[in-house]
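Section handout 9: paired folding examples.
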Amino acid sequence: MADKKKKDSKESKFAYKKKSAWEIFSNEQIKKSYEFCNDYKKFLDAAKTEREAVDYINQKAKNAGKKIIINKDKSAAIIVPGKKNISQGVRIVISHIDSPRLDLKQIPLYEEGSCNVALFETHYYGGIKKFQWVVIPLSLHGVVVKKDGKKISFSIGEKETDPIFSVPDLLPHLSHKVQNKKKIDEAIAGESLDILVGSQPAKGDFSEKIKTAILDKLNKDFGISEEDFISAELEAVPSFKARDLGFDRSLIAAYGQDDRVCAYTSFKAIMDLKNPEYTSIALFVDKEEIGSEGNTTAQVSTFLRSIIRHLDKNIDVDSVMLNSKVISADVNAAVTPNYLEVFELKNASTLGNGVVMSKFTGHGGKYSANDASAEYVSEIRTILNKEKIPWQTAELGKVDNGGGGTVAKYFSRLGMEVIDLGPAVMSMHSPYEVTSKVDVYASYLAYKAFLKG
């Protein structure tokens, strides 16, 4: 009887059913997905900060003869002219190249004499779970600008021969009262995320021998003094390498995939783009993780306006933007098997089901969200179906369970049609996020199809 019931069970031919990218893609496309992600992993290892991402994108674009505009070394735009006049609008894929991390404070170095160690004080950047950032290997990246204006670049902790850094934690034998009984978001305080940087004291009559030794080392190796830290941007990020995950190597584990997965796939899409209908722009911006505040962010319409005027100095910029269409290339939260209760499964994204189309973002009653029009959702859906690109639709968790934002709303304010489109990410905002290789490849195909017009 059970077999008969199963055989007789039917679904309406009009019903919607999410389809797996592994089923939609041919064997050849799956092979291409794996090959595509080999270079993606190299990008993740090479571009762990926004400055490094811009450097990578700039070098590759220039070598390929692409037109690129850089904004203060932290945001960039690659432009491919289209067949149609710019007055008919442009096509933009925008992603952000910053990720949650630990930033060094302006005066970071101190000695804890009772412990015989020196540490850097930090201020965490973006939405993190603080307990995830203790006792993991960290590397230091960024720049120090000396008083004479000379810029010193840092990248320490990535090579096998480099030292690494780490935030110490309390052993379980002693943590019962000070950590274990507290709420998880209170067990590790922000002010306790200080990084161990050394322990060998200097010889001589110094009040702080270990700090003195560290300053002497920094001056000898890099020519910097303690005051130079005040004009520095130094970031502590996980020194983990991007790795294949799983017996079948179908997944990627790496730091910073939110949102460098979209940055890389949109970068590759525009690099491979030829003769599009509309002028196409891949835009890479900074500081999305802290609300897009600053002069290198998605809120700075001046940069976009300058790009449009660069293409045609006599054009009406506002009318161009009103005729333009945008993909906010950002990720969505993959359903996490250990915590199904926070997801509304019919409207949630899962690994391996293609690029995720998010009609709206925000939280609660769609607060602080872009909400794409039905017409524009239909247009994007038609492109994906026509090109046989696997896709799914999702929102970020149950209605009253949280949510999140992207840069989409800033472009919709300029009168553009905007929708969020990007792969699902598991363990988002952690030091080691997870994506599916077929979803990464589907995102590249989606951006390229959109830009092609």
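Moving on to protein 2 of 2.
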Amino acid sequence: MNASSAPENYRRQLSVQAERILLYGVFGLLLFGPLAFGAVEPWSIFVVEAGSTALFLLWIGKQGLDGQMTVRWNPLFLPMGVFSTLIVAQLVLRRAAYPHDTVALALLYLAYGMLCFLVAQALLRGAQARSLALIVSVYGAALAVFSLLQGISSNGKLYWIRQPRMGGWIYGPYVNHNHYAGLMEMLVPIPLIVSLTRLAPAKVRAVAAATAAVMVGTIFLSGSRGGMMAIFAEMVILAALLVKQKRGLRTAIGIGVFLAIVVGLLVWIGGGELSKRIATVGPGHTELSGDIRANINRDGLRMFLKRPLLGWGLASFPIVYPQFRTFYTNFFVNEAHNDYLQLLVEMGVLGFATMAWFVVTLYSRALKKIGNWTGEMSGAVTLACLLGLSGILVHSAVDFNLQIPANAALFYVLCTVAASEPFVKPARKRRAVRSQPPEETLDPRETLSRSATNF
């Protein structure tokens, strides 16, 4: 009996190790992307695609070790599948203006899909989410500190070494400061929500609040007005939620300390220059003006009206746009600077409707899980994801963060986490719930005591 059970135990150990590699491998790729200039170059795109494929093959191998195929469903998979079908239809029906670019971006979207699928299969427990929150918070803090140092001592090069080929407004590891802001919009809510919950000791919450404050400060110091607008939207949503749930004095004090750190950081480092950055684009930086963006929007709508149903094809905007441009500029308009407009142009009304379905499903699922976010890991993680996603959706109205692979991959993975089922409770907690007598048979004081110990 012992001899026969040994191989089974070995397979079980290998399966556990494979699950750990899957989870941390996915987030390793997500954290690699921003460091590689947003994963916009062919070599970094290859790393994301090859890494996603390798992890997916590992998941298949894990199913063999388990002796059965287990797939955990996520409601976002259905609109994802429909969107993929529309891309295939563009290619089959020859509606893509430049099929080569459509296929190339479709492969990248396939990598995003595999990362989302793997997260849905591997992120199952609150303990995993706790470890990832720590990793992401440390990563965000380190990246923010690096960006502060680079902003103070910049020589116009990425990492003080790499000269961008087409110029830009460098901040952190990104050529475009708006895309750095987009990354931080998604990362900031993680330490911020940790600082407002009862899921960590007081010292950890204080450090998390300081971390979030530094990260928010760099968004303002980067000069991204879209990023400032997105962070403001996130804070308004969080404040509205706190007012609705009538949180106590401790939460209000925590937010006050957070804002004080942010303001202090901005005054100390930004000074008078910050107000100029908020009012207008700083001198010496090249960026599209508001008039040019308005012209692009009008031209883009004309493009959409030419092919309203299936659009011009995924990734076709820079190829087709010169035919519709109505103004002169020295800039190469490679994106619409409005993710919603670009989606309409490239995927038509069918693709836009599918993404609207995706977003509605995301929010309807996530809002059901955040009721007890201060004391429950599933609710806290969902709220952190939802705040970050709301910020990037606001920012997408004036920029193209979701055309940057590093930011897009993180966005879709956070969507998947937010819409997933609540985390599995530890076995001892499940046994405690099953053994607990019906609520109405308990003395009220005993019920209150038991409820308190659950937190």
